[in-house]
Amino acid sequence: MKPLARCLATGLRLAWPALLLSAATLPAVAQSAACASPFTAAPAIQGRGAATALAGATVTVQGIVVGDFEGPSPALRGFYLQDEQGDGDAATSDAIFVFNADRDEVSVGQRVRVTGTVSEFQGQTQLSAQAGTLVACGSGTVAPTDLRLPFASADEAERLEGMLVRLPQTLQVTEHYQLARFGQVLLSSAGRQIQPTQTHPPGAAAQALLQAQQLDRLILDDARNAQNDDPILFARGGLPLSATNTLRGGDSVSGVVGVMTWTWAGASASGNAWRVRPIGALGGSLPAFQPTNPRPTHAPPSQGTLRVASFNVLNFFDNVAGCTGGVGGTSMACRGAGSDVSGAAAQAAQFAIEYPRQRAKTVAAIGRMNADVVGLIEIENDGHGLGSALRALVDALDAASAPGTWAALDVDARLGTPNRLGSDAIKVALIYRPARVKPVGRTAVLDSAEFVRGGDASERNRPALAQAFEQTDGARFVVAVSHLKSKGSACDTPDAGDGQGECAQVRRRAAVALRQWLATDPTATGEADLLVIGDLNAYAREEAVTAFTASGWTDLIARDEGAQASSHAFDGRWGYLDHALASASMAAQVVRAQHWAINADEPAALDYNINFKSAGLQASLYAADEFRSSDHDPVLIDLRLRRSRQPPVAGPTAPRASGPSPRRASAVRSHGPAPHRSPSGSAAPAWRATPPPRPPSPARAGGRSAGWRPPAQPRPQDRPTPSAA
């Protein structure tokens, strides 16, 4: 046995000591005559309905122990007893849960009889054993019953309650959100389940798909019932989860044997649900998940001459105290590293550990994208200069490559007014490689009431940012970065129940306003080559997206990756919220658009956070690489731009949007004092000089651009000592 496997086996013996008990340890009240006495069979107790008809009755039952989960809380404090013969009725369960308080008296494979009171507890039929009534009657076995997904109906699983089952199909992981906390994953028979409005228009068809999906999911539980346990058992190859041994969405498992239970996972937050528990079951074992969905070894090689990326950086803040909505704005709670504990001292201590970890992952992801222009979403809204999160990120990127490799678009300096990107805690931003492109024309911000409110009385969407860029041969394009209102909280118009979630109309109105604004040439470059990127918080068939595609724009991800592409997972369903939309002329110059699957497929436990992790898990689950650097996958868009034969014709100055701005009279301002100019005449950020252009670096093997290197790791004596949360 390998050392790691030996340690794991030892851990299982400690966790389930009942597995090592022999019949000799049972109470001495057992008599051979008692084992031959009449008893009430488990199927008779269960009956055909959802609840037993014998509630309150005292009965004696006999059968084979098919699942042993005894011991004090958080264990289930009992065992599952299955009738050896069964009643031959497929509509009734042949097993029952025996609640045995804190006693530890049985092991799997034993034949026992016990007397107790019948009841329903949180939807599961059980027998509460009377102390001293358990009798050992030898040993035996039962064959597992095959359980196939999808269920024929919502109540079909009831007939298998408490029974030993086998999952003969190859099932795929469609959710692992609760893997670290509760030791559970959600399985499906048809691969990762797709978000209904990813492939269906909002309405009846989407809702019908949602209901069908509910019948094709089943939880696989590690049976320990303790929260945030160490190690995390479910991962590839039957080995614990680690930074190098992941469990990705779409990975598969087959031939699982376990007990079918209607239980929670040790806390009310996990909820009662149908769970198969293979560990502690008769004939069960630790599942060996297969790497059906391989990790990408590098970013997809660029297929064009210029790459644009969109990346939600998951609340990248470079501080955990004194956060405001814009420079000098309203005080707001900080987000990101260190923010999910209480108390200033605790937050500061956690930030000191988490922020370098988050920064290293973010830098690794951006550095390995090989992108020339990157739209950022969810970066702290604290300006653009020294002390800002945006400046900190650019400096870290330069430190990992070379000084001057990256620059940030200083929106406030270019427009001559502060806080043009809103008063929320987070904003959108643009960074770029000055050796490859330069910003031209006017920097434009859409912050009209029509856009940011989307028809509501309050601000919902963050201002959008548009900028024209010119590559070294003079070819140009315009990119707009947007972050629309999420589905997670209500707006003035209630959720219509059509599958789009909350605030669908706010997002739709904002999308229409953004499309119409871009048609007015807000960058004053006359460019018709328009690219919209960002987190629109809408799946492919929702109205915020069709507001573009119904007007001649192309959904590049749908075109190049297909309808079932994904960049995000929620509630065990997959789709893409992170978009690349192109005007007609732009679409013809996009060679390929795709997501780089480094985040959504990976368990959240592999991110930078240290809370709820033991010191061992803080070390084993973390690597300073791109994986789980965010909860969204980045979008990579490869362009091959055509240079215009004639210089671009200057378009009209972007008009002010109708209606007053929620913050200022000028709803849309796309100009300001002349920005700082580099020697080449291109606009450059006010806080750093733009170096002269240089040829692009050739790509190295593994997807890293030449000159890129991973962030330097602290010397051992400088590393903070992780502590258990």
TrEMBL record:
Residues 699-710 have a biased composition (Low complexity). It comes from the Bacteria. The keyword Signal applies. Residues 641-725 are annotated as: Disordered. GO terms for molecular function: catalytic activity. This is Endonuclease/exonuclease/phosphatase domain-containing protein. Keywords: Signal. CDD domains: MnuA_DNase1-like (cd10283), YhcR_OBF_like (cd04486). Residues 356-632 form the Endonuclease/exonuclease/phosphatase domain. Pfam families: Exo_endo_phos. Gene3D superfamilies: Endonuclease/exonuclease/phosphatase (3.60.10.10). It comes from Sphaerotilus natans subsp. natans DSM 6575. Residues 1-30 form the signal peptide.
